[in-house]
Design goal:
Elements lengths: L1 H12 L3 H52 L6 E9 L2 E11 L5 E9 L5 E10 L2
Antiparallel strand pairs: 1-2, 2-3, 3-4
Length: 127
């Protein structure tokens, strides 16, 4: 008759140490996964910000060339550009086309680490 009372007392005490440790391990894994996901979101937001600024540099260069109304010379050049205090390097490769009144402009915008943040191909024409 004493055995059922003993089991009832053990159940009423609470969780065992093993159960608590397993619960802590599960919670720790969930928190680590949440931190990793938050870090990935932050990295994506920073990359998007850099890409938008790089696109602005490329567009500014192309508009500047159009406003100069001078035919872009063939060749490879580099220029520096800064948008929102972020430095970029424009790698410009101008090539002739079969039509002598048009030129192809391959424009790559590199960030400070050398990553190609934006790339565009445009056509310039003799005005």
């Amino acid at each position: 008759m004493h055995a059922p009372r003993l089991d009832a007392r053990r159940r009423a005490r609470g969780f065992t140490l093993l159960e608590v440790l397993v619960a802590l391990a599960v919670v720790s894994l969930a928190l680590l996964a949440a931190l990793r996901a938050g870090g990935a979101l932050q990295d994506d937001a920073q990359r998007y910000h850099t890409t938008v600024l790089a696109e602005q540099c490329a567009q500014n260069y192309l508009v500047d060339q159009r406003l100069r109304q001078a035919f872009v010379p063939v060749g490879v050049t580099q220029e520096r550009c800064t948008e929102a205090d972020t430095p970029f390097l424009l790698h410009i490769d101008v090539r002739p086309t079969p039509n002598p009144n048009f030129r192809r402009i391959d424009l790559r915008v590199l960030d400070a680490s050398g990553w190609t943040a934006w790339q565009v191909v445009a056509i310039a024409w003799n005005q």
